[in-house]
Amino acid sequence: MKSNLIHQLGDWNPQLLREVKGRFKIRNILLAIGISLMGQFILLISAQSRLPSNVTLLYDSSHKYCTGKLLDRVPKCLGDELGNVIINWQLWSLDVFTWLSIISCFAFLVGGTYLLISDLATEERRDTLNFIRLSPQSPQNILWGKMLGVPILLYLVALVAIPLHLWLGLTAKIPLSMILSFYAVMLTASFFYYSGALLFSLVGSWLGGFQAWLGSGTVLGFLIFSYETLNQNVASDNPLVVLKLINPCYLVPHAYVSSMYSLDNPLLSKFHWFAVPIGAMFLATVCFAMLIYGIGSYFFWQSLQRCFRDSHSTMLSKQQSYILTLCFAVITIGCANWQTLVFGQHYTYHTMVENIAGLLFLNFGLFLYLIAALNPHRQTLQDWARYRHSYHLEKLGNRSLIKDLIWGEKSPGILAIAINAMIAISCLSILTLASQVNDDHKSYTFISLVFAGSLAVIYAALVQLLLFMKNEHRLFWTTGVLGAVIVLPPIILAILFSHPGNNSVFWLFSVISPLMVLYPSGNYMTTMTPYIAILSHLTILGLLVFQLTRILRKAGESATKAMVVGN
Known about the structure:
Blueprint lengths: L1 H11 L1 H10 L2 H23 L6 H4 L11 E2 L2 E2 L13 H37 L2 H6 L5 H11 L2 H20 L4 H28 L6 H24 L7 H5 L36 H28 L8 H17 L3 H4 L7 H26 L3 H16 L5 H9 L6 H21 L4 H29 L6 H23 L7 H4 L5 H6 L10 H38 L1
Antiparallel strand pairs: 1-2
């Protein structure tokens, strides 16, 4: 029977069988089970040490897990007939359940990300990844095998912990449906993060042995930042709430212990999407989060299929990027405070600025990804330049060039980034126009959006120019130069000018220029300064595009001459 099961697994997914056979050894299985049981034991012992002892009765004191009347918002400890403290086991179980859930989120996402990136990096170093690419299996089958097989021992650790987790949740009076919903969230979140890890392992192989640590460290940093910082400082009516939705720690189910010991649901109870109170229902919040995970995973897998077979391919086609930007805009703009800005009676410009700033921050992250996903590398650009030069010699017109720049697979990505910027700006403009703030404040917002769009296209042109360098380490240099252009100007300006309002014009040439327009601290908004700065942005963009066009034309001519001589 075991042999038949192995054969069936091999027929369904040979890559999964390869991964399972390499990891599912008796020693590894026992070690995984032992780690899981030991971790559960340590958690229970730690939680038990926090329980009140019988000594607390002697001093008539209070404790979180006692059941008496509140003394300074903490219940007083009561004893039974035998002199033992009466403990609120429901609240204790809820706390242990919550901690086990959060620890599981971190271990599952960070550990699985590290394992997947490390495994593919090892395959790349040993040149076995190219052998796998040549196999008759489809990219989906191979990547599914990796995703299911590489973290197989981590899945076993989680499986062993499920009985304790279920028992704690049911003891805490959490409905079984909510617990199962959390499991569904963990599955979809893991699929989302693991898909991103696989993509990063394919496109970031130039990082070498540092790749796995960087990928898992980024996930760990995001989970900690979003759970510790955003939980206290970002309300549920701010667009940054979308960062909470992609952190499954916020979707750990909670229960109301009683009216006396009730816990405020810290998750997303006040979350609205286009003024619809989705956060009022736990199931609706879970479904919305899973929808976000699903959309993100879809685009990750589109990129995976493109990059797995052809390492020189861009991560996304231009058409896919337009759809991604539109989906991203709809999701994030819906998280804005529509109930106050559009439908409310009491609104302020501060609320508008806070929401636009949050949306600009989210779009900044999106466009960094799009710049990396749409700009082709040197060899691809050379092939395209040779093709365009031959096309130009036939005098077939420039209409096809525009079409190629908008839809083409190998053409530079600058125009596509500009179109994506226009899509994002258009969606943000809808929120601005629908809001009830006055026209002057709306004009500030529109100018801010223009600055944001121009910066995105300038960064895209700079990256495309750097990727055409004749340098083996051009990816490293491109990343370093772009990082310096983004980070260094604000730091230098902050050192030279302590107050932005005194020298506002200089700040308009940094990455925070959209925020400078949103938060005007000087009198420059009544002058032509912002418009002159925008013209300067366009001049910089024009110079970058001119230089890129010149070297592409030269490369196309050289390649064509080489082909003619060769023939």
